[in-house]
């Protein structure tokens, strides 16, 4: 016996989400059937709004409702430093710390030969252009995660940007190897930035 088509389609949709296999997708689909109509409507509207109303900032690559984003538009921020992160979630984590008032650049991933991700697949060209057109930026702080891919990406950026006379630093390894910025607490992040070292 097969599931009725609407359920089969919903299971298929849930399976497109990261970390969700068929079993979990099936459980979520049946859970959805039992939700009040208003909750389902709200969920569907939120899904559509996130695609319709959000875009990537043309300067830094962060998700935003307006382009350029709020951070790039804010001239009161320190225009000399840029923290390079893997994704927008990391910007949120660092902003929550409330200690860093410079700029950001979101790569949308890291170099990963295993996944076939090279420099052209990341938001690197925009970073190079940004440094050329914004001479106020004198330091790039690479805050990719402490994974082999994150380290390789940091080294790549160092080799790429250093010849232009930009100071390249890396977060201190207060963060445990393999740990994500996303899950680090504010004090750990603060110490990692304070203790950053030139690479
Ligand atoms: Zn921006």
Automatic annotation (TrEMBL):
Keywords recorded for this protein, A-Z: DNA damage, DNA recombination, DNA repair, Metal-binding, Zinc, Zinc-finger
Domain of life: Bacteria
Chain ranges of zinc fingers (C4-type): 57-72
GO BP: any one term: DNA recombination
GO MF term (any one): DNA binding
Domain Toprim: from-to ranges: 80-176
InterPro entries with a match to the protein in the record: DNA_Rcmb_RecR, Rcmb_RecR, Rcmb_RecR_Znf, TOPRIM_dom, TOPRIM_RecR
Family: Belongs to the RecR family.
Role according to the record: May play a role in DNA repair. It seems to be involved in an RecBC-independent recombinational process of DNA repair. It may act with RecF and RecO.
Protein name: Recombination protein RecR
Organism (species): Liquorilactobacillus vini DSM 20605
Recorded name of the encoding gene: recR
